[in-house]
Amino acid sequence: MKLKVCGMKYNPDEVAALRPDYLGFIFWEKSLRCFDGEIPQLPQGMQKVGVFVDATLSELVEKIKKHHLEAVQLHGSESPEFCKELRQQNFKEPIQTIKVFSIKDDFNFDELGPYENVCDYYLFDTKGKLPGGNGYTFDWKVLKDYPSTKPYFLSGGIGLEEVESIREFMKRPEAKYCYAIDVNSRFELEPGLKNIQELKDFKKKIDER
Question: Pathway involvement (predicted)?
Fold first, then answer.
């Protein structure tokens, strides 16, 4: 099980020392966790994810090149055509594309079809007032109808209290393609400042499962 810690702002070095698989840096100006600075050198194998909400293609390309991002997370209403255009850009290394879909009580999985061939992962988050970082979970049972074989990130209000729920979820058939757990607001002292001890405890418990 991979781990992604999103909403890096004030203490990415400390988080990186815990060796999660992905660190997410938000480049949406309306977010309290919007990152503005230089991303520190990360340990080898840890991937930098840029999180965007309806940014233009040129904005994405600029940030990818400036920060040497390995992946982008598209958290807005980006179309399949937009994802295809992004894939066609000439980067030195291939860029992974993570397309986000927000879920409340149910979800129409037909929405995934047009994205099957233009992104590498899906991410399922809780639908709320903001695109991410809302602090509460959706009902993971919705994913029993997941029709794809594409690996996905499970996100949305996951904290230490969800460890047992995650263990139970991973025993279900719908977890077959769950590739990573994505955490953010439930591990913060304030927006963008992560609680290192709680992240450490969470990672240890997840690794023990």
Answer: Amino-acid biosynthesis; L-tryptophan biosynthesis; L-tryptophan from chorismate: step 3/5
Tokens representing 200? 């450490």
Which fold would CATH assign to domain 2-208? Answer: TIM Barrel (3.20.20)
Domain boundaries, the chain: 2-208
CB 180 within 8 A of CB 206: no
Q: Which two tokens stand for residue 19?
A: 């060796």
Kindly tell me the burial class for residue 78, based on how many C-beta atoms sit within 10 Å of its own C-beta (0-12, 13-18, 19 or more).
Answer: buried
Query: Which whole number is the average pLDDT over 141-155?
Result: 96
Question: What tokens appear for 99 in the block?
Answer: 């397309």
For residue 129, pLDDT beyond 60: yes
CB-neighbour burial class of residue 191 (10 A; exposed 0-12, middle 13-18, buried 19+):
middle
Tokens of 201: 């405890």
Tokens representing 161?
A: 């209290």
